[in-house]
Amino acid sequence: MNFKGRDIVSIKDLTKEEILHVLDVGGEMVPIAQGKEKSDLLGGKIMASLFFEPSTRTRLSFETAMKRLGGEVIGFAQPGATSLQKGETLADTIRTAESYCDVIVMRHPHEGSAKMAADFASVPIINGGDGAGHHPTQCLLDLFTIRKEKGKIDENVIALLGDLKYGRTVHSLAYALSLFKVKMIFIAPEQLQMPKEVVEECQSMGAKISFETDLENAIEGIDVLYVTRIQKERFPDPEEYNKVVGIYKIDTKLLKKAKEDMVILHPLPRVYEIEPDVDKTRHAAYFRQAFNGVPVRMALLALVTGVRE
Ligand code: CP
Fold it and tell me: Which helix (H) or strand (E) holds 32?
């Protein structure tokens, strides 16, 4: 298994064994991520954090990961303050940034942009989300969280709920879960169901998938409920968004029908889909999930820079 120098553009860049290795290394990183142990594993290394689109968790957890491992961070979160404003291309931005750093983490609104950056850069590119395309590090931390919360990934019934059409995290997660022995339920209104090509690819890998529109019908049998936000910014027509906004709402009344040990995950940010009083229930795992981004991203940074095998 050799990660050194590799780009992580899509979860499909990794085999099941490689995914499990990232999760295992992430597990070792937890005490460092919590600040309970010190490390200089990435001492002398620089990560460029290039965020062309808003982010809270991905950017901050990558930056925390780098700093907890003794590395340095350069970059921007407001592309309006860079030479993009003067018309510089993404290719030239990447070619410049790579000469200042050892690894680039980028988020960009355009699908395919991370792949394009990887074609230009000689340092590893880690995709922090490219439009409606891929978000591989979110997928890794989702798998890490499922394994941590449930003890294993296999043999769970995992429901993906909400905007399965535009939500990039659920596309990556559906693919990755197809590598495991799980049952998946895709719960969405007809117009936001999982794209046909994603479903067909998962089924060709042997995935067991059922489809629902009504969460109440399915909730009793679910072990992991992965909730997503309706992605307003990706709807071409605001009227279409207005038809589906607020369609699913997780509240304590609904949770009375759920298994006692069902866990709720959400990549966050949430808007209307989970009521705040759910946060106090034993089901809410989404803030632990957000923390898990730190050890998992530490693992990935250590692996692609070659300081850890
Ligand atoms: N989950 C996630 O990608 O969150 P951010 O958009 O805040 O980075």
Answer: helix 16-33
Is the predicted pLDDT of residue 274 greater than 90, yes or no?
yes
* Ligand 1: lining residues by beta carbon, under 6 Å: 55-58, 129, 138, 267-269
Q: What is the DSSP string of 181-224?
A: S-EEEEE--GGGSPPHHHHHHHHHTT-EEEEES-HHHHGGG-SE
Give the mean pLDDT of the chain.
95
Among protein residues, the one with the nearest Cα to ligand 1's atom 5 is: 55
Q: How far is the CA of 268 from the centre of ligand 1 (A)?
A: 6
Mutate to test the pocket of ligand 1, among 55, 172, 270 (most ligand atoms within 8 A of CB): 55
The answer to whether residue 243 scores a pLDDT higher than 90 is no
- Nearest CA owner, ligand 1 atom 4: 57
pTM (global) more than 0.70: yes
pLDDT per residue as tens digits for the range 276-287: 999 999 999 999
Residues with a known catalytic role: 57-58, 86, 107, 135
Provide the pLDDT for residue 237: 82
Nearest CA to ligand 1 atom 6: 55
Residue 230 has pLDDT above 90, yes or no: no
* Separation of CA 32 from chain center: 21
